[in-house]
Amino acid sequence: MHPLLARPARLLLVVAIAALFGVPLAWILKLLGPRPWAAALAFAVPLQIISGFIVLSAWWVCRRHPISGPGAWRAVAVQLGAALQTTSIRTALGTFWALALDRWLYAGLSRADMYRDLFVMFVTGIPIYLLSAGGHYLFLAFEASHEAERRVLETQVGAREAELRALRAQLNPHFLFNSLNSINALVGSDPEGARRMCEGLGDFLRRTLALGARDEVTLGEELALVERYLGIEQVRFGDRLRVERAVDPDAAVCRVPPLLLQPLVENAIKHGIQDCVAGGVIRIEAKRAGGSLRLVVENPVDPDAPARRGEGVGLANVQRRLEVFGARESQLSASREGDTFRVLLMLPAVADGALAEASRG
Q1: 320 and 201 belong to one structural domain
Q2: Cβ atoms within 10 Å of 188's Cβ, excluding its own
Q3: Angle between helices 262-271 and 219-237 in degrees, nearest 10
Q4: Average per-residue pLDDT for the chain
Q5: Which of 53, 221, 275, 337 lies 20 to 30 Å (CA to CA) from residue 250?
Q6: DSSP for 155-195, written as a single string
Q7: Contact 62, 11 (CB under 8 A)
């Protein structure tokens, strides 16, 4: 069905526009042959309304014969043929309408006047159809452009989702490798601790799958996941692992990409606590300042520990997740000051509305 015929409001619009086109046509007819305005309008307006629906046939012709590409000249020829056909139909209808008016409403026009009016109808019908065809081609071009934009957007969304899945798939084996090494270290010296660590790991992985499947989570949910991870590592390191937390309530309700902090905390343990004989303190800080969310993870560094050549999955994964998340204003920086390694994350502070209201209440 033609788009303009799909809704009653659009149908009325077609009628109104066609009727308006009938007014200048009536004016031309009145100039060519003296007659009352009522007679000229009675002939031109109803016929123009019918013609308005006839020229909508250009919609199907334009769709079947696009004006671009190798068939452009063929499309032009087809449109000219269609213009002659629709104009002939318009003129034939005008003949019957002129005879009806002459018989029942406004008599007095000579045959020569009628032939002249029909000639005007035929001549004006061709540009009216071609104008309709041009409008339909423009509409189809706009529709094709809109469809192309929609496909590009769907492709971008699909690529973003695929990349997120790839990043999650990259992160999970990385974490499992480290966790299994930790469990292996405890099997001989502390079997009970290894069992508790396996239980904690199972619970952690279940929650990781639940949160990782979402596009975004609140910082509070992310921190709860980090707490379960720290509980696993606490079994292994005992008193060597200590954690300080400074989390503002306003920051906890902000939305962040899932699994954002866990790899940073994992790096802090692997490259910090694990290398320090006496262990140390991991500090997690989260503050909201205006429109920004500030996250900090700090860990001690043993200056005498040999340099590790890891795969760099942690920081690189976090950086890429920020990019895919679409937070263009986000920043990730890592620095070492003395015996402290510090990772700073700056993100736009977008709060979950319901949780924000609850925290203020």
Answers
A1: yes
A2: 8
A3: 20
A4: 80
A5: 337
A6: HHHHHHHHHHHHHHHHHHHHHHHHHHHHHHHHHHH-HHHHH
A7: no
Q: What is the DSSP letter of 303?
A: T
For the chain, what percent of residues have pLDDT higher than 90? Answer: 12
Strands (E), the chain: 217-218, 241-247, 255-256, 280-289, 292-300, 331-337, 340-348
Strands 331-337 and 280-289 turn out to be unpaired
Burial class (CB in 10 A: 0-12, 13-18, 19+), 67: middle
Distance CA 78, CA 61 (A): 8
Which residue(s) pair with 341 in the sheet?
Answer: 299, 336
Distances from the Cα of 269 to the Cα of 223, 236, 247, 345, angstroms:
16, 11, 20, 18
Helix axis angle for 262-271 and 111-189, nearest 10°, is 30
Domain end call among 103, 126, 152: 152
pLDDT confidence tier of residue 358, bands split at 50, 70 and 90? very low
The total domain count for the chain is 2
Q: Are 248 and 287 in contact (CB under 8 A)?
A: yes
Residues 6+ away with beta carbon under 8 Å from 23: 41, 44, 45
What CA–CA distance (Å, rounded) separates 251 from 293?
7
Query: Which residue's entry shows tokens 């700073």?
Result: 344
259: left (phi over 0), alpha (psi -120 to 50) or beta: left
What tens digit of pLDDT does each residue of 236-268 get?
788 899 999 999 999 999 998 888 888 888 888
Domain termination residue (choose one: 152, 180, 200): 152
Residue type, 33: G
Domain holding 129, by residue range, is 3-152
Pairing of strands 292-300, 255-256: unpaired
Round to whole Å and give the CA distance between 14 and 313: 62
